[in-house]
Specification:
The protein is α+β, with helices and mostly antiparallel strands. It has one domain: Sandwich (Jelly Rolls), CATH 2.60.120.590. The strands form three sheets. The protein has a seven-stranded antiparallel β-sheet with strand order 1-2-11-8-13-6-3, covered by helices on one side. A hairpin with a 2-residue loop joins strand 1 and strand 2. It binds N-(carboxycarbonyl)-S-(naphthalen-2-ylmethyl)-L-cysteine and fe (iii) ion. Fe (iii) ion binds next to loops. Its cofactor is Fe(2+). GO terms for molecular function: dioxygenase activity. This is Alpha-ketoglutarate-dependent dioxygenase AlkB family protein. It holds the Pfam family 2OG-FeII_Oxy_2.
Length: 225
């Protein structure tokens, strides 16, 4: 379903076997060094969702090769499995008609055209316990306009997609469940968004994940190698 221009929700997209594989991989990626960490915000607060990064380390507000605000370790590599998954996800959300006929100078200036030949190179994985939230924000630290791909595992949440002007209304609320895909490109790439609530006990019985929610976002950094 297209929730807003360029924002496409594909419920139940991940095959059960792939959900299990991703959960197991997330548990490995969460281990130190460069494992799960609490993100401190510039105002002296901290995010309630904890995070692990692959490819590049995100910190407010930029990307680094090492965990500059944690153990200082080199960031874990971005696995090719996630690169393939990202390209498949964009194709699933936008369909074959979104495939670029031209790439580069001749391509039309829309994020719909940029995705397929673009190398996804960053994963930000957020771990929500049942109390965790994410306030309304924009993702503007990437230097590329390729769509952000989001995969959800575990407990359901309330996801809020706002507008590109400010944090407030109008917004559209969507429930995200285990296995759902969401792709945010085109006019929605810089929209405000957040996670106001996790719904305890709504998780995926087939996953045996325990309470909480996992979200994997796949991104194109636009940064030099
Ligand atoms: C809409 N994560 O990591 S995923 C984030 O569920 C983030 O953990 C949330 O916001 C989560 O930055 C939401 C959905 C998402 C991700 C990126 C977006 C929505 C987006 C970028 C632009 C617009
Ligand atoms: Fe975000």
């Amino acid at each position: 379903a297209e929730i807003a221009p360029g924002a496409v929700h594909v419920p139940d997209w991940l095959a059960p076997e792939l959900r299990r594989e991703l959960l197991a991989a997330c548990r490995e990626w969460a281990r130190p060094p460069a494992g799960l960490r609490t993100v401190r915000t510039p105002g002296g607060g901290q995010m309630t969702a904890r995070q692990v990064c692959l490819g590049r380390h995100w910190y407010p507000y930029g990307y680094a090769r090492t965990v500059v605000d944690g153990d200082g370790a080199p960031v874990k590599p971005f696995p090719e499995l996630l690169g393939r998954l990202a390209r498949e996800a964009v194709r699933a959300a936008y369909g074959a008609e979104a495939q670029p006929v031209a790439y580069g100078a001749d391509a039309p200036p829309s994020a719909y055209d940029t995705a397929y030949d673009t190398a996804y190179d960053i994963a930000l994985i957020n771990f929500y316990d049942t109390e965790a939230r994410m306030g309304m924000h924009r993702d503007s630290d990437e230097r590329a306009d390729a769509p952000v791909v989001s995969l959800s595992l575990g407990d359901s949440c309330l996801f809020r997609l706002g507008n590109t002007e400010h944090r407030g209304r109008p917004y559209t609320d969507v429930e995200l469940r285990s296995g759902d895909l969401f792709v945010f490109g085109g006019p929605s790439r810089l929209a405000y968004h957040g996670v106001p609530k996790v719904y305890p006990g709504t998780g995926d019985p087939a996953l045996a994940m325990g309470p909480g929610r996992l979200n994997i976002t796949l991104r194109v950094s636009g940064l030099p190698d």
